[in-house]
Amino acid sequence: MPHYQVVKGARDIFPDEILQWKHIEGVIHRLAALYGFNEIRTPVFEYTELFQRSIGSSTDIVGKEMFSFLPDPAGRSITLRPEMTAGVMRAALQKNLLAAAPVQKLYYISELFRKERPQAGRQRQFSQFGAELLGVSSPAAVAEVITFMMHVFEVLGLQGLTLRINTLGNMDDRKRYREALRNYLAPFYEQLDDASKERFEKNPLRILDSKNPEMQEIVTGAPKLHDYLGRESLDDFEKVLFYLSVRGIPFQIDHRLVRGLDYYSYTAFEVTSSALGAQDALGGGGRYDSLAVELGSSGEVPASGFAVGMERLLIAMQKQGLFSDLEAAAPSVFVIVQQQELFDQALEIVTRLRRAGISTVIDLAGRSMKAQLREANRMNAANALFVGSDELASGKCTMKDLRSSQQEECLLEEIIEKFRQSEPLNPPRS
RNA sequence: GUGAUUGUAGCUCAGUUGGUUAGAGCGCCAGGUUGUGGCCCUGGAGGUCGGGGGUUCGAGUCCCCUCAUUCACCCCA
Q1: What is the Cα–Cα distance from A287 to A266, expressed in whole angstroms?
Q2: Do A235 and A156 belong together in one domain?
Q3: How far is Cα A91 from Cα A204, in angstroms, rounded to an integer?
Q4: A144 in contact with nucleic chain B (CB within 7 A)
Q5: In what order do the strands lie in the sheet with A333-337?
Q6: What is chain A's percent helix, strand, coil content, to nearest 5?
Q7: What CATH number is attached to the domain comprising A37?
Q8: For residue A352, what is the domain's CATH number?
Q9: A388: Cβ under 7 Å from strand B?
């Protein structure tokens, strides 16, 4: 039993799993380029107020899940980011990106931190990939980010996904609805659970998607948000659904979908996977026009975005066997040393092969030939190159194809030439 | 924060109503083959039985505490 363990809720990712991550990341980067999204990286921490203002102080994230600390006794509180949108918006506003170009399409793959009890599909350090489309108020913008997200899932081969979508209306609609909802809930106030009582004042909409059966009971008779939506909101939502339909993206309208962050308006959506456990939300997002103003912008910045949990993506793909054809990079040549006295000369050969662009390894531990061969086999090396007194005397090498077990003697130059033909040094990008 | 679950070798796990030196498979190392891997055979290394306390002649096994794990609630990716 090792003395030290990883911090609760964090985990190590070892080389075999890195293959899976790189595969997913590769698809994300490729499709982002296809859709014209550009990568952004922001610091892992921000001033705590940023999250309090943006995510909302009534949310669980801000209320109890943030890792916050004081960098020095007199300093401002800093928080390890629990989500990306606030930081990206802060960066965009600080640099005044929209003045340089009025439409910004950004994406990221980043690490986030939330102080929760870990369980399947939930960690304290986790990562999300996501996109933010700033500066466009057209419903085509939300449709664009949803399409990008669903396209990634499709290329990765995921099955069993459900896209649920709703509209929360604009700020005026929500204000009117909030009042109506409060009037309806007021007589039930004493029956509300603690969380719902808290939300009654701050954000009663969130009582709607409570999973507490008793709350659900109370809420069934509540006025419907949909009935309070103005013409503008309805038109916007219809357009979003139209764009999705046209692109063949299946969805379910769910009028109870609210989502936890305070800054959403208009469209909100969520994708769940049947391959996941209790934490089955693979990703979600929406429209958040009011966020910029909340962060001090003089005018509204229409914005749409989504975030997808990378670990959950990974779990879902593993469950569905979507990584079966991934193979670790194997060296082309494993140089085998007959006697350790010849090691230095063998190293020179290794260097020449590497300089020629041929991936080459050699046993550095001074082990027996048998152990070296076993290692070559374990690494799935394509060839073994034997360096012994005979070879050095004749100036030739013995090269063995480890798959076919055929071996032949030839000059080192011939080997290099052979590889140059079969694996070019600068392979064309696919 | 709440509930439940599981902690025995590097990994996956056995361990009978408490009873001698705690086992298996896989993996690792070495030898069989002193210049040749995989397959096979033989051998070897590796364990404070999560930790602490208690009951007992005797505890991996029973009791208490503690730490950690996992799953679930809450909420979210």
Answers
A1: 6
A2: yes
A3: 31
A4: no
A5: A360-362, A333-337, A383-387, A397-401, A407-410
A6: 45, 20, 35
A7: 3.30.930.10
A8: 3.40.50.800
A9: yes
Note the CA–C1' distance, A122 to B51, in angstroms: 28
Domain boundary among the residues A293, A319, A345 is at: A319
Instruction: Find the domain containing A56 and state its range.
Output: 15-170+230-319
Reported as a single tens digit per residue, the pLDDT across A332-385 is: 999 999 988 999 999 999 999 999 999 999 999 889 999 999 999 999 999 999
Nearest nt to the CA of A369 via C1' is B36
Please identify, among A273, A292, A319, the residue that sits at the C-terminal boundary of a domain. A319
Q: Which nucleotides of B are covered by protein (CB under 7 A)?
A: 1-3, 9-10, 28-31, 33, 35-38, 48, 50, 68-77
Whose tokens are 């130059």? That residue is A413
What tens digit of pLDDT does each residue of A147-183 get? 999 999 999 999 999 999 999 888 888 888 888 888 8
Q: Is A267 annotated as a binding residue?
A: no
Is residue A304 located within the same domain as residue A361? no
Please check whether strand B approaches the CB of A128 to within 7 Å: yes
A277 contact to strand B (CB, 7 A limit): yes
A212 touches strand B (CB under 7 A): yes
